[in-house]
Amino acid sequence: MSKWSLFIRLTDDKVYKLLSTGENIMTMTARNTVCLWYNHNAEEAARFYADTFPDSSVVAVHYAPGDYPSGQKGEVLTVEFTVLGIPCLGLNGGPGMIHNESFSFQIATQDQAETDRYWQAIISNGGQESMCGWCKDKWGISWQITPVALTKAYTSPDRKAAKRAFDAMMTMKKIDIATIEAAFRG
Questions:
Q1: How is the beta sheet containing 142-147 ordered, strand by strand?
Q2: What residues have CB less than 8 Å from 49, skipping those under 6 apart?
Q3: Strands annotated E in 53-94
Q4: Taking a C-beta distance cutoff of 8 angstroms, is the pair 140, 130 a contact?
Q5: Which residues touch 92 (CB under 8 Å, ≥6 apart)?
Q6: Is the pLDDT of residue 15 over 50?
Q7: 145 Rama sector, left if φ>0, alpha if ψ -120 to 50, beta otherwise
Q8: Contact by Cβ (8 Å): 115, 175
Q9: Which of 14, 26, 79, 167 is an S-S bond match for 90, by CB 3.0 to 4.6 Å?
Q10: For the chain, what is the mean pLDDT?
Q11: What count of other Cβ atoms lies within 10 Å of the Cβ of residue 7?
Q12: Considering the entire predicted model, what is its pTM?
């Protein structure tokens, strides 16, 4: 059987590679990919992200060709996926690595409905709320659901108005755009 490779360049930083050795396997090769460790549930997480966020998908699921420290031959080893266009690799590395807030996805939302939709999707699927627009999904990945209105408010050249909006944000879990805008206006 012949072996062939076809590379398709979609943008300067994304190259999709289709390999064939009798079956089609699609692999994403990017210059920079976020690698996230999971405890045997990388595929579940990737499918949730693909179902929740636009421009997100599961690209490929790869199975271990042999036993490894946290798994066995034939189990899902890695999952290639995108989250809002960002290439990611989910590695089923076992319980040894714990996620924390030092890495997060920041989602810029356009309005309250979008903010509410993403927040609710994460929280209602076993996630947990935190402060100032932060939440964690059930796999421990941190998310900042950040309305553009908030960013504009706290970066405003009117530093007094920016501080009022910032102080309002500091009291919130999920960001309420109307409250931020009211605080900004004074």
A1: 104-109, 142-147, 134-136, 128-129
A2: 56, 81, 83
A3: 57-63, 76-83, 86-92
A4: no
A5: 37, 38, 39, 40, 41, 42, 70, 71, 75, 76, 77, 78
A6: no
A7: beta
A8: yes
A9: 79
A10: 87
A11: 10
A12: 0.81
Sheet of 34-38: strand order equals 34-38, 86-92, 76-83, 57-63
Share of the chain above pLDDT 90, in %: 77
Other beta carbons within 10 Å of 8: 10
DSSP string, 112-130: HHHHHHHHHHHHHTT-EE-
Mean pLDDT on 94-117: 93
User: Which of 140, 131, 80, 79 is closest to 105 using CA atoms?
Assistant: 140
Q: How many CA atoms lie within 13 A of 167 on its CB side?
A: 11
Give 52-66 pLDDT, tens digit per residue: 999 999 999 999 999
Contact call for residues 38 and 90 (beta carbons, < 8 A): yes
Amino acid identity of 104? S
Find the mean pLDDT for residues 138-153: 97
CA distance 48 to 57: 9
